[in-house]
Amino acid sequence: MARTEKPLFRIAYTLYTRTRLGYMYYKRQMRKAREQYPAGHSTSQPMEFNGIKIIPVSVLSDNYSYLVIDTDSSVAVVVDPADPQTVQTVLEEEGVMLEAILCTHKHWDHSGGNKALKRLHSSCRVYGNAADNIPGLTHPLSHKDSVTFGRMHFKAFFTPGHTVGHMIYLLDGRGVGAPSSLFSGDLVFLSGCGRMFEGSATTMLSSLDTVGSLSDDTLLWPGHEYAEDNLLFAAEVEPRNAARENKYQWVLQQRGQKLCTSPSTIGEEKQYNPFLRSHSMELHLALGIQQVQDEDWTQFRARVLEELRKRKDVYNRR
Q1: GO terms for molecular function, please (predicted)?
Q2: The model's pTM
């Protein structure tokens, strides 16, 4: 079974990402989610900083899109609009004009609504990395490119590993006297990271280090509601991590009421997210991994990350 599992998985992944069957699967999942969660899988509260408003939008079975609004100009940007109908409803409720889509990567559960929203908002621009074959892309971005909409200033970071063209978007909070906000797609979740579908552990480590280099007060807005499962896995590899246990108890309270667990902060994640802790001696001991003589530190950390991701894949594949 173990010998055939990986080839079968690669076939399924190729069908999902490169054929019309994948798009049909996404449409089916969207319909099912609308039936199962007519009000969304989670309840969230908007967060506002001096006229910049961030609204997590619950879509599909566990995804989040994010509507970011400059309330002074009523201009809006949406990150990863997987369900265009749901996103359009929120746009109408807020009474704002959609100026741009910031797409982290090509997977349908992040990019599936791009073209439909573009049809509804003809002047809307679609941003992302050209390497990822993003639906409806109009404005390709490269590493550290900046884009501005009203008073909203975003910097894009090229973070491959989950896909070849994955990007994350940092909303600069300095202009409005607030923390910055990172929209991380499937690179980093609360206590987790995305699967390495199209990159090596070394590539993914470099992308995760980009996140780790950000200010500790940066707010983290990930692409999925995976917090509870991720923290349970973190307990498997670092059972004595007190910060993880405290966060887990809070997440249990939130999820018990079907409340959104976003945002966390980069500073918090560094305390309990094992995928941002490849440097941690405690984690090395827990995994039973040691740096061998003359082994490069970065390569050793990549080996730690690879082992973590293998264990997570076996644990629950998220």
Answers
A1: hydroxyacylglutathione hydrolase activity; metal ion binding
A2: 0.96
